[in-house]
Amino acid sequence: QVQLVESGGGLVQAGGSLRLSCSASGSISSIPSMGWYRQAPGKERELVATITSALSTNYADSVKGRFTISRDNAKNTVYLQMNSLKPEDTAVYYCKLEIAWEDTWWRASDYWGQGTQVTVSS
Fold first, then answer.
1. 39: which strand partners?
2. 39: CB partners within 8 A, 6+ apart
3. In this model, does residue 1 exceed pLDDT 70?
């Protein structure tokens, strides 16, 4: 059974930085895609950034130039470095990993982390 463990959220002043991490455990064959999403109160969940196994990245326009997504395949971990944070970045941040298991390596499914709160004060 997979476990996704997120960490790194917290309270920071505008202009500050935070680094989120999300690690997966289990008998994993591959993780083709990793990503971060966020959901602010009263709003729908939105994509923040994604990264493929080929290290191709995609960012929401609102975070380009401020956030950086990266991954460590040996640790089955994805990171989100968030700089120049703004109050509008306040949200619960979720990681999503597309995981293929060793015994079903030809098929990947999406798994979500539990979410971590990021609050940016003005």
1. 92
2. 45, 46, 91, 92, 94, 115
3. no
**Distance separating the N- and C-terminal Cα atoms of the chain:** 41
Give the residue from 53, 32, 51, 46 showing the smallest Cα distance to 94: 46
The C-alpha torsion from 31 through 32 and 38 to 44, rounded to 10°, is -120
DSSP lists the bridge partners of residue 80 as 20, 69
Q: Rounded to an integer, what distance in angstroms lies between the CA atom of residue 119 and that of residue 39? A: 12
Instruction: Give a three-class secondary structure readout of 51-112.
Output: EECCCCEEECHHHCCCEEEEEEHHHCEEEEEECCCCHHHCEEEEEEEEEEEHHHCCCEEEEE
Taking Cα atoms as reference points, which of 18, 25, 20 lies closest to residue 6? 20
pLDDT in tens, 11-33: 999 999 999 999 999 899 999 99
